[in-house]
Write a structure and sequence with these properties.
By secondary structure, this protein is α/β, with parallel strands linked by helices. It contains 18 helices and 27 strands. It binds 6-O-phosphono-alpha-D-glucopyranose (G6P).
């Protein structure tokens, strides 16, 4: 989703703005632009397409401003075009702004402005904000901003510059992320931490309805009613190296290879003498709950499907795993006896955040499983557990998924312990061995690359699995379609004969996962049914399973069945990666997708 950068300081603003936008590319975008406050006024340069198009356009300018704002746009209102790109300015170019989010009442505001004689250059909802600022400006930019914020509905992260008050940038947020950083010679702002890391690790997180005024050597924060407030500075625990490619061809590959380390990080200090330690949750009385919801989107939902099954098995509490966009509109039955767990890498996904707020309003106790420190979901939930995956840049989630699985398994066993339920200690011991097994699986990359050749010219593939393996194939299919654009559907293997088998014909490829001992043999017989109809099969199973006549069988190391979900993710991620590479796809930035979906 849109990325924002802002610089107010003593050095040139443009290098910061561009490097920041570059670091935010992973969020997904279709156009880019900047506004610089130059000696002779505001200069805005913007265009459709990639950042390199903007950089080419910028080579015709010499921009020396020390104050500026930048934006990468992911179209919501109006097609990707030069005119719809941000920043947007008023007619006489005295005020310019960038906006991330959606102004829900923009139509009525636009009508109102048209009646007042304003005209619009773009089809965007954002342009109403700058024209409203123009309308309300009466010698005090902060007062005008406050007035505008009281008129707009929806979500926003805003950065505003003006020639009227050429020493400052005003920023504001509601339901869209915005982080402010302190640099030696400046104050800066951005949608996400990676944009700041090259310059600073000292940041302030804005809450909804808060505003800040950035000056060269000063920053002031304000509450929704414009009253000055104090905010604490946070120090980010990782540095810029964590957000670089480290010689890997793509972030996705780098992040796949980071998994042994980040799984270790996520486990660190959380298992002591056979006990799971999640001190962040020590105040929760788990005996008060009669139901547990897991709510998430995309990959995080697949991790939730797995985590919820594990919790149900070990605690016997009824669980429901659901996607956030359904939960929020389906009037879920939630009360003070409900535990609701929200899983989100970014901690900013609009649907997950709305679902969290709904669950809180209905009286649930909420836990966030997040990866980004200080993210909105992590701050809004009653309790938070962090995965330690570090910054995930590739749009397709890999290391966030496996660390979510690890943390959700730990959580399930933690709850069981707190409820005095006897748990499988072998599994707890085995968790520590998972990073080594992941390394072992990574070493077989050539095998997965050879499977990718089977998919290169296919239009469709079919993934099948049962029980926990079903969550794994859902994620495997999602990964493949996201990055390689090969259509991939995942089915519960037992449902094959109720429809999907009609699609199988000579040359179809079926990817099967059969790692759960109580049900693996059933999946393996489903495979035979597809082979009989001409399918070529890739089977991921565990040592000891009896398999006959399957062309490509890969044996995963044998660990407790629950932990297989973590291991099986590795070949499936690499299969998707290599298929995308063979097909020449933009692996890290797949078309139409955004890393962080901050609008509904
Ligand atoms: C987007 C991303 C997915 C991600 C999903 C949920 O669709 O492209 O990779 O799984 O959002 O994101 P979250 O940050 O909430 O985990």
């Amino acid at each position: 989703m849109c990325g924002i950068t802002a610089y107010c300081g003593n050095d040139l603003a443009l290098p910061f703005l561009l490097q920041g936008l570059n670091k935010l590319e992973y969020r997904g975008y279709d156009s880019a632009g900047v506004t610089l406050l130059e000696d002779d006024g505001l200069v805005t340069v913007k265009c459709r397409g990639r950042l390199k198009n903007l950089e080419e356009k910028l080579s015709d300018y010499t921009l020396k401003g020390h104050i500026g704002i930048g934006h990468t746009r992911w179209a919501t209102h109006g097609v990707p075009s030069n005119l719809n790109s941000h920043p947007h300015s008023n007619d006489d170019e005295t005020i310019s702004l960038v906006h991330n989010g959606i102004i829900e009442n923009y139509r009525e505001l636009k009508e109102e402005l048209l009646e007042k004689g304003y005209h619009f250059q773009s089809e965007t909802d954002s342009e109403v904000v700058v024209l409203l600022l123009d309308y309300y400006y009466d010698g005090d930019l902060f007062a005008a901003t406050k007035k505008v914020l009281s008129r707009i509905e929806g979500s926003y992260a805003l950065c505003i510059v003006s020639t009227f008050e050429p020493d400052k940038i005003i920023v504001a947020r509601k339901d869209s992320p915005l982080v402010v950083g302190k640099v030696s010679n400046a104050y800066v702002a951005a949608s996400d931490i990676p944009a700041l890391l090259e310059y600073t690790k000292d940041v302030y997180f804005l809450n909804d309805y808060e505003m800040a005024v950035l000056e060269k050597d000063n920053i002031h924060f304000y509450s929704h009613d414009g009253k000055p407030i104090e905010k604490d500075m946070n120090t980010i625990p990782y540095d810029i190296e964590a957000a670089k490619k480290d010689g890997y061809e793509h972030f996705m590959l780098k992040e796949i290879y980071e998994q042994p380390r980040v799984i270790n990080e996520t486990l660190r200090g959380r298992i002591v003498n056979d006990k799971i330690i999640l001190d962040e949750l020590k105040d929760i009385d788990f005996s008060q709950f009669n139901k547990v919801y897991y709510v998430a989107c995309g990959t995080a939902y697949h991790a939730s499907l797995c985590g919820s099954q594990v919790l149900e098995r070990v605690t016997k509490l009824p669980v429901i795993a659901t996607v956030a966009s359904e939960f929020r509109y389906n009037d879920p039955i939630v009360d003070e006896h409900t535990l609701a767990i929200f899983v989100s890498q970014s901690g900013e996904t609009a649907d997950t955040l709305a679902a969290l707020r709904l669950a809180k309003a209905k009286g649930a106790t909420t836990i966030a499983i997040a990866n980004v420190l200080g993210s909105t979901i992590s701050r809004d939930a009653h309790y938070v557990l962090y995965t330690c995956a570090g910054p995930e840049i590739a749009v397709a989630s890999t290391k966030a998924y496996t660390t979510q699985l690890v943390l959700l398994i730990l959580l399930a066993y933690y709850v069981a312990q707190k409820l005095n339920i006897e748990v499988n200690l072998q599994l707890i011991h085995e968790l520590d061995t998972i990073p080594d097994y992941v390394n072992q699986l990574l070493a077989d990359h050539d095998i997965y690359a050879s499977w990718a050749k089977m998919l290169e010219n296919l239009h469709d593939t079919y993934f099948i699995g049962r029980s926990l393996d079903y969550a794994s194939v859902l994620e495997g299919a999602l990964k493949l379609k996201e990055v390689s654009y090969v259509h991939a559907d995942a089915y519960v293997a037992g449902e094959l004969k109720h429809g999907p088998i009609a699609l199988i014909e000579p040359g179809s490829v079926v990817i099967a996962v059969a790692t759960q001992p109580h049900i693996a043999a059933k999946t393996i017989s489903n495979i035979q049914e597809t082979i009989a109809r001409g399918a070529r099969v890739i089977l991921l199973t565990t040592e000891g399973q009896e398999v006959k006549n399957v062309e490509n069988t890969y044996y995963l190391p044998k660990v407790s069945p629950t932990l297989q979900s973590i291991l099986v993710a590795i070949p499936l991620q690499l299969l998707a990666y290599y298929t995308a590479c063979i097909k020449g796809c933009d692996v890290d930035k797949p078309r139409n997708l955004a890393k962080s979906v901050t609008v509904e």
